[in-house]
Amino acid sequence: MIQYAMTPLLLYLLLIASLALGVMTLERRFVRYFTYLPGIVVVYLGAMLLAYTGLLPTDETIIQSSTVLKNNLLLSMLFLMLLGLNLRTFVHLGPKLLLSYGGAVVSLIAAFAAVFWIFGFGGEECGTFAALGASWMGGTANMIAVASALHVSPEALGKAIAADAFNYTLWLIALLFASGFAPIFNRFSGAEMIKPSIDPIACSCTLGPKRYYRTLLLSLLAALLAQIAAAQLPFLGATVWSVVLATLLGLALSFSPLRHESAAQPLSSTMLYLLVALIGSQARFEAPETLLRLILAGSAILLLHGAMMIALARAFRLDLFSISVASLANIGGAASAPLLAAAYDRALVGAAVLMAVMGYLVGTFGGLLLYELLRLIA
Question: What is the pTM of this model?
Answer without folding.
Answer: 0.75
